[in-house]
Amino acid sequence: MEDPPIEECEHDDINKTEQDTQMEESKQNNKDVEVAPALIAVHPTQNSVAVSVGSDLRVFNVPEDCAVTLVDESGGASHNDSIRAIKYGANGKLFVSAGDDKLVKVWSTESWRCISTVYSEKRVSALAVSNDGLHVCFADKFGVVWVVDLPGVDGSEAPLNRKAVPLLGHYCSIITSLEFSPDGRFIVSADRDFKIRVTVFPKKPLDGAHEIQSFCLGHKEFVSCLAFICTPDYLQGILVSGSGDSTVRMWDVISGSLLDTCEVGAKAEQLKFDTSEANCSTVTDICTIPDCTLIAVAIQSLQGIMLLSCNLPSETLSVVKVVSIVGENFIPTSLGSSISGGLLWMVTGASKLSGSDHSSLSRVKVISGFRKSSPDSLEQEPVVLGDCEIPGGAKLLEKLQGSISIDEKVFLAAAEAVKTAMCNLLIKKQYSVEKRECRKRTRNDKKMR
Amino acid sequence: MLENKANPTINKSTGLPRKRFYRARAHSNPLSDSHFPIPLSPSHVDYSLHYPQLFPSSDQINGSKIQFADIGCGFGGLLISLSTLFPETLMIGMELRDKVTEYVKERISRLRVANPGQYQNISVVRTNSMKYIPNYFEKGQLSKMFFLFPDPHFKEKNHRRRVISPHLLHEYAYVLQVGGIIYTITDVEELGEWMKSCLENHPMFEALSQEELEADPAVKLLSTATEEGQKVARNGGQTFQAVYRRIVPAS
């Protein structure tokens, strides 16, 4: 039997001739896809913290204790659909945001002006800034990674709306995460077809990246997130990845070999109070704590985070502890940390929730207790900070959350929304035989007689 | 061969499966989601299933790995010609269409029975090579890759479905060893030019010289060994080939 000719990447290509029932269903699916989880990013030296919810980008300046107003005089369009990726450059000078509106916006973190607006042909799913801050890479829904160069970021050159050129391609698979290795030699891309690809980042990126260093294969479901552990002893970095198969895996990027696997799903399962739901231990985000070997993991069923420790000499991963957030239904959708500060920032939330008064919502929480002095163990117990203990306090929360107090009900809605968004986007659809036949009959690429 | 008399799908005189019982569409969409099993990584490819005589048990490692891949092998004509030409080399055909794969499987197993000791080095697998090449082969594992009469995908909108494309060449360069050769042939002039220009513009491939082409026994098979090639020859059609070598890029 032939597979139905459904292109997997773009879900909004609905067959117009389908029967009404199917039409409704597709619309429903389409709506779910549009729900975007809230994202958080922290400046490398914690000069600012950024949260995105839907098309809304919120930035707070921590040292000056004030909300940042973004200035966009680049002449390009503004974000008008869900933002899917936000990131600071490694040197902290740049901030990039991109998403479903096919816009990639590059901001200066000094002035918070938009330096450049790049137009993508397809919706953008992942972003990365090269370590020298000269190139921005973004991945579209068709699995192509594009590169734009940004010379004159520091200079007075007029803002340019540059054109991106293709760098590399995963064959028609949604790219979920993009990361540069700490030494800048490789660009790593993960996709929903279980693959992690390590590509040599070329000297002239605009000519394309031709040399694949390795493939890291071993995940049994979509790969949702990537991060590098980098310590002074391991400057080249060790790659860790989280996946829909409820594991966090550790890789040697040079050879692509799997070093260790940590079954975080099994551990989270034991802690769950509500056991009615099965199979929802997808790893949504991972965040490495700079200069130490701790990894914070956000899991779809876990209220709080799981902390893993990586033993570099023996190349093993182990669960250190679970930091639970009691009292609130806080399942983080995104994590962030900075080199200084010793804090782990978390956000939960989603945009465009149906059945909610708020058009979009987010809740920010912070865990403290990460210090450089003790690289592989926790100096003190990690503590979930109260709202007033967070740097920036109520002012910061008001900016990043939109309001200080958040209705309890919205947490549940957020968790649910994130789950469906991820399911729709990343999990392969299974069709029954009848449905398959029906789709085949109504395919729109058939010649009309 | 007695049992063949009862089985109409087998040709009585040759003992081989008959193509008419393995009818399939000419094309298959490489973009659609696949629901067939895929090995987790190249080390998970079970050689004992593909080459039972050479690998009696699945845990046995005798050091040799698949070296030739026929991408979109169709009805397997090339594999069968190559099998006797390179009897010491393991090779595999990759085909997306289910029924065609079944036919090639049956054809190989019949050939093995009819010619004891021969055709043990060839096999076929149903997979989408455009997505899962890295799941089957390690870096630098292959010495030859064949792309014979691929789907032309004329519409510009569908060019990304072509099996030779700038992005996919990166993956082919990854699985090919330095000095490994990529063979392409088509009867569609437009596609022939496309494949040639993709390879020409890729820094990790260089064209073989005329002398090298003449000395290579595999080149002769390109237009003669496959069912598709024979059809083109029957109709007096033209073919366009591009044969390139994997090189270390000048940095």
Automatic annotation (TrEMBL), chain A:
Q: Establish whether keyword Repeat is in the entry.
A: yes
Cross-referenced SUPFAM superfamilies: WD40 repeat-like (SSF50978)
Return the PROSITE patterns for the record: WD_REPEATS_1 (PS00678), WD_REPEATS_2 (PS50082), WD_REPEATS_REGION (PS50294)
**Subcellular localization:** Nucleus
Stretches of Acidic residues bias are at: 1-11
Keywords (alphabetical) are: Nucleus, Repeat, tRNA processing, WD repeat
Protein name per Swiss-Prot or TrEMBL: tRNA (guanine-N(7)-)-methyltransferase non-catalytic subunit
| Annotated signal peptide | none
Any keyword Signal? Answer: no
- Which residues fall in a compositionally biased region of kind Basic and acidic residues? 12-30
List the GO biological process terms: tRNA (guanine-N7)-methylation; tRNA modification
Q: What are the start and end residues of each WD repeat?
A: 76-117, 216-261
Outline the segment boundaries, as ranges, of region: Disordered: 1-30
What cellular component terms from Gene Ontology apply here? Answer: cytosol; nucleus; tRNA methyltransferase complex
Its family remark reads: Belongs to the WD repeat TRM82 family.
Sorted alphabetically, which Pfam families does this protein's record hold? WD40
Assembly and partners are described as: Forms a heterodimer with the catalytic subunit.
Q: Which domain of life is it from?
A: Eukaryota
What is the native source organism of this protein?
Answer: Theobroma cacao (Cacao)
Which SMART domains does this entry report, sorted A to Z? Answer: WD40
The protein's role, per its UniProt record = Required for the formation of N(7)-methylguanine at position 46 (m7G46) in tRNA. In the complex, it is required to stabilize and induce conformational changes of the catalytic subunit.
Quote the pathway field.
Answer: tRNA modification; N(7)-methylguanine-tRNA biosynthesis
TrEMBL record, chain B:
> Is this entry keyworded Protein biosynthesis?
no
What are its E.C. numbers?
A: 2.1.1.33
Subcellular localization: Nucleus
Q: Which SUPFAM superfamilies match?
A: S-adenosyl-L-methionine-dependent methyltransferases
Source taxon at top rank: Eukaryota
TM ranges: none
GO cellular component, as recorded: nucleus; tRNA methyltransferase complex
Which positions in this protein are listed as binding S-adenosyl-L-methionine? 72, 95-96, 128-129, 148, 226-228
Q: Which residues form a coiled coil?
A: none
Which family would the database say this protein is a member of?
Belongs to the class I-like SAM-binding methyltransferase superfamily. TrmB family.
Q: What is this protein called?
A: tRNA (guanine-N(7)-)-methyltransferase
